[in-house]
TrEMBL record:
<comment type="function">
    <text>May be involved in the metabolism of insect hormones and in the breakdown of synthetic insecticides.</text>
</comment>
<feature type="binding site" description="axial binding residue">
    <location>
        <position position="340"/>
    </location>
    <ligand>
        <name>heme</name>
    </ligand>
</feature>
<protein>
    <submittedName>
        <fullName>Cytochrome P450</fullName>
    </submittedName>
</protein>
<keyword id="KW-0560">Oxidoreductase</keyword>
<dbReference type="GO" id="GO:0005506">
    <property type="term" value="F:iron ion binding"/>
</dbReference>
<keyword id="KW-0256">Endoplasmic reticulum</keyword>
<dbReference type="GO" id="GO:0020037">
    <property type="term" value="F:heme binding"/>
</dbReference>
<dbReference type="GO" id="GO:0005789">
    <property type="term" value="C:endoplasmic reticulum membrane"/>
</dbReference>
<dbReference type="InterPro" id="IPR001128">
    <property type="entry name" value="Cyt_P450"/>
</dbReference>
<keyword id="KW-0492">Microsome</keyword>
<comment type="similarity">
    <text>Belongs to the cytochrome P450 family.</text>
</comment>
<dbReference type="GO" id="GO:0016705">
    <property type="term" value="F:oxidoreductase activity, acting on paired donors, with incorporation or reduction of molecular oxygen"/>
</dbReference>
<keyword id="KW-0408">Iron</keyword>
<dbReference type="InterPro" id="IPR036396">
    <property type="entry name" value="Cyt_P450_sf"/>
</dbReference>
<dbReference type="Pfam" id="PF00067">
    <property type="entry name" value="p450"/>
</dbReference>
<keyword id="KW-0472">Membrane</keyword>
<keyword id="KW-0349">Heme</keyword>
Length: 396
């Protein structure tokens, strides 16, 4: 999908790399996503959550008849928390005026229909990439994040020399470690950092906004989640407890089933193989064949999921998630060795935000929001067409 010469940052992302390059890059980045590192920066998530709650209260006072833009709210949150966790900087994402980082983040994912069509075709017909290459990340956005990375590294080095933030086990410190160990240059470090940012910004905001939508449509299940949060957490924000809330997990996984970030995934067959299909007939896939996995179609199939179009988190309780994964029917984060690198980090962000919002507010869906699950055909991720508009009522 991306070429390192025309699109350096995305071209160096493990998501698009193959073979030994993929193994090497993934091995470098994986230690940055350890549970210990995520837990260490969780206070940052908590801090941003409180800022988000204050922002919601301010918007409630304004009283816009359309409510609050759920996607904008979610993107502000992920932009702020990821920028702080990864770069140690504030994005000022909840400021009244759009901050440069938030603007560039939106530009990063605001792709044209031409690019979306190209991506779809290139995934199914790889030879197209040899004929024509398109840049995913606009040049001004790339330059902005390269400069941001340079400034972040310089600032952290100065802090370490002064004895400040020496013990902060965050992602930028890990980047400094990689720079010293492997003598990586700024462009390579930027590509690494953008892996964290790409995984953390848009896709996470997409899941969070759709989970708020589904909870807003279902007051009963929203209350079940609120009861779990209050019973196990009260007013605290203990990391280990938040990571062990079964109904919260179920709500997130059901959201991902209904609104997976990607409608499909493409895989390249590296070795010819023959196996039986579901009808007992032999099926051979030759080396070099591109295989399209219809992720959304699998997870929306009534044959696999009863009441597939309904929001029913209970299906993922009591071993349900493992059952669907073992059957190859739950692929929200992919599967196998190329499963999403940032899965745990993304889930931690989503859980932190949902806990605070559900604990503080009753969520309702504004009438501006459509009532079905029609997807936006012009966007490269799966999102509700027309936007998600929410209303919040404070809980005393």
């Amino acid at each position: 999908m991306a070429d390192k010469n025309t699109d350096f940052i995305l071209g160096n992302n493990p998501f698009v790399l193959t073979g030994e390059e993929w193994k090497e890059r993934r091995a470098e980045i994986t230690p940055g996503f350890t549970t210990n590192r995520i837990k260490t920066v969780f206070p940052v998530t908590n801090k941003v959550c409180q800022t988000m709650i204050d922002f919601i209260r301010q918007q409630m006072k304004i009283g816009n008849k359309d409510g609050i833009d759920g996607k904008d709210l979610s993107l502000r949150y992920t932009c702020e928390v990821v920028t702080d966790c990864v770069l140690g900087l504030s994005a000022d994402a909840f400021a009244n005026r759009p901050s440069p980082i938030l603007v560039m983040t939106k530009n990063l994912f605001d792709q044209s229909f031409v690019f979306i069509a190209y991506t779809l075709l290139a995934g199914m017909l790889p030879w197209i990439k040899k004929v024509k290459k398109l840049r995913f990340i606009p040049k001004p956005v790339e330059e902005f994040f390269v400069n941001l990375m340079e400034n972040s590294l310089s600032m952290r080095k100065e802090q370490k020399q002064k004895g400040v933030n020496e013990d902060r086990v965050d992602f930028i410190n890990y980047m400094l470690y990689l720079q010293e160990k492997k003598n990586l240059q700024i462009p390579e470090l930027t590509a690494h950092t953008m892996t964290f940012l790409l995984d953390g910004f848009e896709t996470t905001a997409n899941v969070l906004s759709h989970c708020l939508l589904l909870l807003g449509r279902d007051p009963k299940r929203q209350q079940i989640l609120r009861n779990e949060i209050l019973a196990k957490l009260g007013s605290t924000n203990d990391f280990d407890t938040i990571m062990d809330l079964p109904y919260l997990d179920a709500c997130i996984h059901e959201t991902l089933r209904l609104f997976p970030p990607g409608a499909f995934s493409t895989k390249l067959c590296t070795e010819s193989i023959e196996f039986e299909n579901r009808n007992g007939k032999p099926l051979k896939i030759n080396e070099g064949t591109t295989v399209v996995l219809p992720i959304h179609a699998l997870m929306a199939d009534e044959e696999h999921y009863e009441n597939a179009s309904s929001f029913e988190p209970e299906r993922f309780l009591d071993g349900g998630l493992k059952k669907y994964k073992d059957q190859g029917l739950y692929l929200a984060f992919g599967d196998g060795p190329r499963i999403c690198l940032g899965m745990r980090f993304a889930l931690t962000q989503i859980k932190g935000a949902l806990v605070e919002i559900v604990r503080n507010f009753e969520i309702r869906v504004n009438s501006k929001t459509r009532t079905d699950n029609q997807f936006d055909p012009t966007y490269f991720l799966m999102r509700l067409d027309g936007g998600i508009w929410l209303e919040f009522d404070s809980i005393n």
